[in-house]
Amino acid sequence: MAVNRHADAAAPVRSSGPVSIWAGRHVSTASASLGRLVRQPFASLMIILVIAVTLALPAALNLMVKNASAISGQWESALDFSVFLDRDLNLDEAAALGRLIEQRADVVSVTLISSDDALEEFKAQSGFGAALDQLSHNPLPHTLVVRPSPANTGQSMLLLREELANLPETDVVQVDTDWVQRFHAILDIVSQAILIGAVLLGAAIIVIIGNTIRLDIQNRREEIEVTKLIGASNAFVRRPFLWTGFWYGLLGGLLAIGLVSLGLHLLDAPISRLANLYQSGADVVRFDLREIGSIIGVAVGLGLVGSWFAATRHMRKIEPR
Amino acid sequence: MAVNRHADAAAPVRSSGPVSIWAGRHVSTASASLGRLVRQPFASLMIILVIAVTLALPAALNLMVKNASAISGQWESALDFSVFLDRDLNLDEAAALGRLIEQRADVVSVTLISSDDALEEFKAQSGFGAALDQLSHNPLPHTLVVRPSPANTGQSMLLLREELANLPETDVVQVDTDWVQRFHAILDIVSQAILIGAVLLGAAIIVIIGNTIRLDIQNRREEIEVTKLIGASNAFVRRPFLWTGFWYGLLGGLLAIGLVSLGLHLLDAPISRLANLYQSGADVVRFDLREIGSIIGVAVGLGLVGSWFAATRHMRKIEPR
Amino acid sequence: MIRLENVTKRFPGGQEALSGLDLAVEKGEMVFVTGHSGAGKSTLLKLIALIDRPTGGQVIVDGQNTRRVKRRRIPAYRRQIGMVFQDHKLLYDRSVADNVALPLVIAGVGTREASRRVRAALEQVGLLQKEKRNPETLSAGEQQRVGIARAIATRPKLLIADEPTGNLDPDLSLEVMRVFRRFNEFGVTLLIASHDIALIDKLGCRRIHLEDGRLQNDSAAEEEVLVVRPSTEDRWR
Amino acid sequence: MIRLENVTKRFPGGQEALSGLDLAVEKGEMVFVTGHSGAGKSTLLKLIALIDRPTGGQVIVDGQNTRRVKRRRIPAYRRQIGMVFQDHKLLYDRSVADNVALPLVIAGVGTREASRRVRAALEQVGLLQKEKRNPETLSAGEQQRVGIARAIATRPKLLIADEPTGNLDPDLSLEVMRVFRRFNEFGVTLLIASHDIALIDKLGCRRIHLEDGRLQNDSAAEEEVLVVRPSTEDRWR
Ligand SMILES: Nc1ncnc2c1ncn2[C@@H]1O[C@H](COP(=O)(O)OP(=O)(O)OP(=O)(O)O)[C@@H](O)[C@H]1O
Ligand SMILES: Nc1ncnc2c1ncn2[C@@H]1O[C@H](COP(=O)(O)OP(=O)(O)OP(=O)(O)O)[C@@H](O)[C@H]1O
Ligand SMILES: [Mg+2]
Ligand SMILES: [Mg+2]
Prior knowledge:
The complex is a heterotetramer, with 2 copies of chain A and 2 copies of chain C. Chain A is of the alpha+beta class. Chain A folds into 2 domains: 27-74 and 181-315, no CATH class; 81-174, Alpha-Beta Plaits (2-Layer Sandwich). Chain A is 70% helix and 7% strand. Chain A is built from 11 helices and 4 strands; from the N terminus they run αααβαβααβαβαααα. Mean pLDDT of chain A is 79; it is low at 1-15. Helix content of chain C is 34%, strand content 24%. In chain C, α3 (96-107) crosses α4, α3 (96-107) packs parallel to α5 (140-153) and α4 (111-124) packs across α5 (140-153). In chain C, β9 (206-211) and β10 form a beta hairpin. By secondary structure, chain C is α/β, with parallel strands linked by helices. Chain C has a 6-stranded mixed β-sheet with strand order 6-7-8-3-9-10, sandwiched between helices. A 4-stranded antiparallel β-sheet of chain C has the order 2-1-4-5, covered by helices on one side. Chain C is globular and about 45 Å long. Classes of the chains: A alpha+beta, C alpha/beta. Chains in contact: A-B, A-D, B-C, C-D. The interface between A and B is large, with 60 and 60 residues. One magnesium ion is lined by residues 41-42, 86, 162 of chain C.
C-alpha cells in the first residue's frame, strides 16, 4: 500500500484505458456542470448577466472607436493647409516644391492649384464674379494644398505648419486654425479618455468576472473540501469548476455580443445619417468574426482562469500544513 | 407560553429599554460588520473594488458629458448662418428683419453686419486689399449673422436654414453646411450612444453590485439559517447584512470617486489645452459636492437594497412551507 | 404542554415520516423519544419547534396551535423553546461564547447578564475554559456540548434535544443528562430524542418509541408517569 | 500496517491534542479507539489519513512515512484509505448514489463497475431503496450510513471510521459493526473511534483508550491480540 507504487495501489480498482477515461470524464463533467447551471436558473442568469454586461462595455467602446475613426478619416479634408507661395515663383517651381513636401512623413498629399485656377474658382465661389473681371492682373499666387497625415497630433500639426511657413518659397500658410486645433485637442482628449476607459474596463472585467467566479466557487467550497478529503487530485477537483467557468464565459460572451448588437441597432439610424453626409456609402462598422471570436475568447479565458485560481486557492487552504 | 403574549414570553429575560437596545445593537452590529470586512481583507477588497469600478464607469461618463457640453457650447460660434440679404434692402430694414428673426425660439442671437463693414473686413482678411480698392461700388450686401440655439438638432437646423432662405428679403444663406451637419450628426450619435451607455451602465451597477452582494451573503447562509432557527426575527437576521452592504457601498463609493478623480487628473493636460484654445479660462469640470453625495448615495443604497433582498431571499427559502 | 393530534408529515417526495401520530406531554415532564434511524424522531421535534409544519393533524404547544402561528410570529414562538440540533448548527465565524450568547442577544438580554448566563451554561457542559475558541477547533463532542449550552442559556420553559449525546462518551452523556434532569426539576419540560437506551433506562423517564413514523410504544401507558411538579416559587431562575 | 512513534500534535492555539503517542496496528487487525470527548481520537485518525500532519514524531502507514508524502502525492495516498467522517461530509448537491460513487469516479472505475459497487455498498448499510434521494432529505443516521457506504465502496485495505455509529440505534450499530467485521475477515485493517463501549465489548476487539492525548490503556497488552489472518486467496474481492 506504499504511496509510491500508485499503479499497484489502484490495482483493486478495475479501470478502462486512461485516454477514454480522461475524455469520458470531461464529457460527463461538462454536461454535469451545464446541468447544474440550468437547475439554478436565477443564480446562473445573474452571473452570466454580470459577465455579459461587463464584457459589453469594452466591446461597445471598441466598436465606437472603430466607427468614429472610420468617419474621422474623412474629416481630414477639412484640415488641409493652403500654402500660398511667393508671387514670383513660377508654376514648375511650385510643382517641384509640392513634390518635395509630399515626401514628408507627416504629409499625405500635396495638390497644386495654379494662380489662374485659383482665380477662376474664387470668381465662381465668392460672388464677386463681375467685380473681379475689372482686375487688371491676377492678385492670387500659386497655392499648394497640403493634406497632413492623420497620424499627426495637435503638436505635430503646429510644427508642420511652422515648417511650411518658414520655407523661403512660402508667402503665407492659411488654415482654419481654430478648427484644426480644436479638432486635434478634442481628438487628444478622446483618445486619452478612451485609453483611461479601456484601462478601467480592463480592470473591471478582470476584477468583476474574477470576483464573481470566486464568490460562486466559494459557495461550493464543501464540494472542494469533501472531494479532496476522499482522495481527489487537484486536477479532478478543479475540473467541474473549470467547466462551470467555461460555460459562464461562453454564455456571458454570447450575451455580451447580443447586447452590443442591440445597442448598435439602436444607433443605426443616426450613424447612417452621418455616413450619408460624407456620400460614403460607408455602413455602420459591426463586429467581424475575429472580434466575436476574441470577445468569446476573453470571456471563456477569464472564466477558466478565474475558476482555476479560485478553486486552487480553496484547495490550498485545506491542504495539511 | 402562548405566542401572542410576546412581552410575557420574553419576560424571563431581563431587558434594558427598547431604544437603547436598538441603538446599542446597531452600534455593535456596525462595528462587528466592519471588523469582519477587515478580517477578510482580500475578499472585502475584491468586493469593494467591484463596486468602485462599476460605479466609476457611469461617474466618468457623466463627467465626460459635462466637460464636453461645457466645451461644445463654444463650438456653436462655428455654426452661425450668414444670411446675405437682397442688395436693395437698406440698413434699417435689415436691422428690423434681424430683430424679427432674433425672436425665434431656435435662434439665440442675430448680428447685423452692414455692407460697408463687410467690405472693410473682407479687404483686411482676404489679402485682396489693394485690388478691391479699384472697385467702383461695394458688391457686398448687408448680412445677418444668425446664431442658432444649441438645442437644435441636425433636422431642426436644416429647417431653420430653409426658412431663413425662403424669406423674401434673403438673397442666399451661407453656412459651412458640411461642418454643421457633421457636427449635429455626431452630436446625435454621441447623445444616443451616451443614452445607451447610461442604460447599460445602469443595468451594470444594479446587476453587478446586486449579484456580488447576493453571492457574498449566500456564503453566509449558515449564519442566516442558524440565527433564524434559534428564534431571530427577520430584522435581526438582516441587520448585520445590511451593515455589511452599507460598508461595501460606502467604501466602494469612496474608491469610485478616487478612481474617477485619478482618471480626470490624467486628462487634465489635454482638456486645459482645449480650454485655452477658446481663450475661456474654463477649467476642467470636476465633481461637485452634490455629485459626490449622489455617487456615495447610490453606492450605499445599492449596498443596502442588495443585501436586503439577498438576505430576505435566503430567509424565505428556509421558512416552513 | 405538547399535544399532537393525528399528526402526519409527508415530504414532497412522497416519503411519510410521521403517520397519524397522537401524543401528549404534560408540563414539567421529561420524555425521551426513541426509534431506529429514520423513524421520524427529528421530524417530530422539528414540527414542535415550528421548523417544519405537519401536512396533516394538529401540533399544539402550550395551548397554541402551530398551524395558526403566522410567519412573522415564528421567531417569537421559537424563542420560547430551547433546541439542541442533531448537527449542532454552530456558527464558525465567532467564538464559542458568542455562539452561546446568540439567543440571548436575540432576546435582547443586556451584555452583563448575557455573559453571566453564557458562562453558567458553558460551566454546566464543562467547556468554560474553551469559551474563547472557535467551534471549528473543537472536537465533535465539544461542539455538541456547545449546542447544548446554547439551548439552555436562555432558560426556556420547553427544551427539545435531538440526539444530544450522539458524540459523547458514556460519562459525559450521563453528565449532560444530569444537567437536563436538574432543569426538569426546576419545571422545564424536556423532549429528547436519543438512541442511548441504556442511559434512558438508567434515568427511568417516560419513553416514546417510534417505528416508521408511528407510535409503537409509550412507557407512560405502562409505568407511572414521572412528572416533577414545578415548584410554586421558581427557584431555578 | 500503522505505526506511530512518539507522535505529538499541537495546534496553533497551543492546544496539544496528542502527546508522545506510540502505537502499532498490524495488518488485518480491527482496533477501536476510545476516550472521552476531546481526548484526541479524531486527531489521531486525521494524522493517519494525512488530513493533518503531526507536529512531532512519525506516522508510518504501510511502511510509508506520512512526513515524506509530498503534497501532490497526498491524493493518491488518501485514495488507499477508506474514511468515515464524524460529520459525514456528504455533498448535498447530488444523490446518495452519486455520493457513494464519488471515490470510485475519482479512482477512474468504469461506470458499470462503479454502479455495481455503489449498490453493493448501499445494500450493506440498508439504504439501497434511497439511492436516488438527496442526502439532505435523509435522517442523520441515514446520512451517517451513506458516509459508511462511501468509505467501503472502494474496498480499501485500510478503513478508518470516526464515530461511525454516533447517530445509529443499537440494532443498526451492531449491523454496521458486523459489516466492518466481515471486511476485517477479508483482510482489511480497521481503526474505529467509538464511544459505544458496550458494543465494543460485545465484539471483543482490541481497544486503545486515549486520555487527554496520551495512550491510557491498550487491551492488546492484556488480552491476546485478535488478528484475523488474511486468507491466501482474497475471497472478498
Ligand atoms: N426533507 C425530506 N424529504 C424527504 N424525506 C425526508 C426528509 N427529511 C426526512 N425525511 C425522511 O423521513 C424519515 C424520518 O426522518 P427523521 O430525520 O425524522 O428520522 P430520525 O428518526 O431522526 O432518524 P435518525 O435517528 O437517523 O436521526 C426518514 O426516512 C427520512 O429519509
Ligand atoms: N484545529 C484545532 N485547533 C485547536 N485545537 C483543536 C483543533 N482541533 C482539535 N482541537 C482540540 O484537540 C483536542 C482533541 O480533539 P479531537 O477532535 O481529536 O477529539 P476527539 O477525541 O475526536 O473528541 P470527540 O469524541 O468529541 O470527537 C480537543 O480538545 C480539541 O479542542
Ligand atoms: Mg434524527
Ligand atoms: Mg472526534
